[in-house]
Automatic annotation (TrEMBL), chain A:
CDD domains in alphabetical order: ABC_Metallic_Cations
InterPro entries: AAA+_ATPase, ABC_transporter-like_ATP-bd, ABC_transporter-like_CS, Metal_Ion_Import_ABC, P-loop_NTPase
PROSITE patterns reported in the protein's UniProt record: ABC_TRANSPORTER_1 (PS00211), ABC_TRANSPORTER_2 (PS50893)
GO MF entry, a single one: ATP binding
Name of the protein this chain belongs to: Unannotated protein
PANTHER family: IRON TRANSPORT SYSTEM ATP-BINDING PROTEIN HI_0361-RELATED, METAL TRANSPORT SYSTEM ATP-BINDING PROTEIN TM_0124-RELATED
Pfam families: ABC_tran
Family that this chain belongs to: Belongs to the ABC transporter superfamily.
Species this protein is from: freshwater metagenome
Domain ABC transporter: 7-232
Keyword Transport appears in the UniProt entry: yes
Keywords assigned by UniProt, alphabetized: ATP-binding, Nucleotide-binding, Transport
Automatic annotation (TrEMBL), chain B:
Gene Ontology CC, one term: ATP-binding cassette (ABC) transporter complex
Organism: freshwater metagenome
Coiled coil regions in record: none
Subcellular location: Membrane
Family: Belongs to the ABC-3 integral membrane protein family.
Entry keyword annotation includes Transmembrane: yes
GO biological process, alphabetically ordered: response to zinc ion; transmembrane transport
Record has Isomerase as a keyword: no
The protein, known as: Unannotated protein
Keywords annotated in UniProt: Membrane, Transmembrane, Transmembrane helix
Transmembrane stretches, start-end: 20-45, 65-83, 95-116, 136-156, 168-187, 193-212, 224-244, 250-269
């Protein structure tokens, strides 16, 4: 028996003006999956996510979401105004726009915030200003906001963009834990070795789906060159694919 | 005792009492809405919209139609036009404000030149005048203040979400365009009912300075929504009284007092809080 996919993109195309940015994409995301979309800057990854969430119009094709699908969205933390006067608690509760109009945070909301923060290991930061947190804590706060609505699927745009190695490890482990608990996750990333290679399913994307499968299947020199338009080598390290781009090798060679 | 009698002297005049009530409520109202203006990086909007409403005020005076009706409709249309132009991201909100409001202001000036009879009332709109405040102004500003309070209370979460994180609010089901259009309409109405006391040229200061001062005193959005109206109302109240004794323009005195509060808060807040001001670079 096959279950209905949570997200079903069929021949989806999106444009900015007349310029196509997503071209004839076919992609299904099933319950319980952990999927990463990789591709160069400007390849249409974020546009595809926006189209799935209804924030960008679909020019051709259809996107079918499972009825009553709840999406938790985590934007790139680099887009956040960290000086905005809000505490962690206010950030998380602000998403409750439909169930409550009352401005004050209620006792039950406060408890729910503590619970979700506790799940993510930052229970003690509820009353702190978002600026006062470390990089890993900041990413967790926005993850907590997405989790607050108890979503069926978590959609994240570049969750490791602009974070240090330690924070990247924290995020990766956190997402693996959430996935293990049954949460479906769809994310975009530039980070081929630090994040993409660790995921169970990877989609190489440049306006269209170039390859779709597990990292061992899709992280090949041919697929990567087709995706990024630049030659890359793939080595194996600790049983996992390790992508080395020729630019880095050339730089090192020149240094010698 | 003599001091108390002296201080009460302006209260013997009805025009002063009316002006004081309108200015104090206007200060609170502008302080409240100013929080969104400042945090959304729209400090220029108050300046722009007040100029746009001036066009409507001039047209109303020339065409001899009700000021609130003419300038109000004009202001709301200008606000919606700005929102419409700014939504096409090719132009930023600042460019949209610049185009729409300066055109409206220019039209007002052209009407003044062509049909110069309306000079006195238009001058009052430009620089404000407590002398011209009537009961209808008190009712109007009180009604709009009440409306503003209801809008902010009922729409608090949507306003906060779309101000803090526009894109995520949109994908989370908040009708961000409607929120922004509503906010601009609210600002237009606020400017309409306050500009006869404060004046077109200085009203933007009332929308920006109390909120900017409040921002430096707190890291909480909710508290900022209390502090900013309190600063706005207090400076208007004290400024009105001072202007009587100093024999200076009420609007100028109010704005100078606001600026003084800003300087004091800035100095007291110190280096740590000055860091927060990085987010207010647009002011």
């Amino acid at each position: 028996m096959t279950s209905t996919p949570l997200i079903d993109c069929s021949h989806v195309s999106c444009t900015y003006g007349n310029a196509p940015v997503v071209d004839d994409v076919y992609l299904q995301i099933n319950r319980g999956e952990f999927v990463g979309i990789v591709g160069p800057s400007g390849s249409g990854k974020t546009t595809l996510l926006n189209a799935i969430m209804g924030a960008h119009p679909v020019a051709h094709g259809t996107i079918t979401l499972q009825p009553n699908l709840t999406i938790g969205y985590v934007p790139q933390v680099e887009t956040v105004d960290w000086y905005f006067p809000v505490t962690v608690e206010e950030v998380i509760v602000m998403t409750r726009t439909k169930s409550s109009w009352w401005p004050r945070i209620t006792a039950s909301e406060r408890n729910a915030v503590r619970e979700v923060l506790g799940q993510l290991g930052i229970a003690d930061v509820a009353h702190r200003h978002i600026r006062e947190l470390s990089g890993g804590q900041q990413q967790r706060v926005f993850l907590a906001r997405a989790m607050f609505s108890q979503p069926d699927i978590l959609i994240m745009d570049e969750p490791t963009s602009g974070v240090d190695v330690r924070t990247r490890h924290e995020i990766l482990h956190l997402l693996a834990d959430l996935h293990e608990k049954g949460l479906t996750i769809l994310l975009t990333t530039h980070d081929l070795n630090g994040l993409a290679a660790h995921l169970p399913r990877l989609v190489c994307f440049n306006k269209k789906v170039i390859a779709d499968g597990n990292p061992r299947q899709v992280l090949t020199p041919q697929v990567l060159e087709q995706t990024y338009g630049a030659p890359m080598d793939v080595l194996e390290h600790g049983g996992m694919p390790l992508v080395v781009d020729h630019g880095r090798v050339a730089m090192r060679g020149e240094g010698k | 005792m003599i001091l108390a009698i002296d201080l009460m002297e302006p209260y013997g005049f009805q025009f002063f009492r009316h002006g004081l009530v309108v200015a104090t409520i206007a200060g609170a109202l502008c302080g409240l809405l100013g929080v969104f203006v400042v945090l959304r990086g729209m400090s220029y909007i108050g300046h722009g919209l007040s100029h746009a409403v001036f066009g409507g005020a001039a047209a109303s005076a020339v065409l001899r139609i009700n000021y609130f009706l003419g300038a109000g409709v004009w202001g709301i249309i200008s606000g919606l036009l700005i929102a419409r132009v700014a939504r096409r991201r090719v132009l930023g909100a600042d460019a949209a404000i610049g185009v729409v409001t300066t055109a409206s202001f220019a039209l007002g000036l052209a009407l003044m030149n062509r049909y110069g009879q309306a000079g006195k009332s238009i001058e009052a709109v430009l620089f404000g005048s407590v002398l011209g405040v009537q009961m209808v102004d008190i009712y109007a500003v009180s009604g709009v203040a009440l409306l503003g309070l209801v809008v902010v209370v009922l729409g608090y979460r949507r306003l906060l979400f779309s101000t803090f994180d526009r894109d995520v609010a949109q994908v989370s089901g908040v009708n961000v365009s409607a929120v922004e259009a509503g906010l601009l309409a609210m600002l237009s109405i606020t400017i309409l009912v306050t500009m006869r006391v404060i004046g077109t040229l200085l009203i933007s200061a009332l929308l920006v300075i109390p909120a900017a001062s409040a921002r430096m005193t707190t890291n909480s959005f909710a508290r900022m929504l209390w502090i900013s109206p309190i600063i706005g109302a207090s400076t208007c109240f004290v400024g009105m009284n001072l202007s009587y004794f100093l024999n200076t323009s009420a609007s100028a005195t109010i704005i100078l007092l606001d600026a003084l509060v800003f300087v004091i808060v800035y100095a007291v807040a110190g280096t740590r809080n000055r860091m927060k001001m990085a987010s207010l670079g647009h002011i």
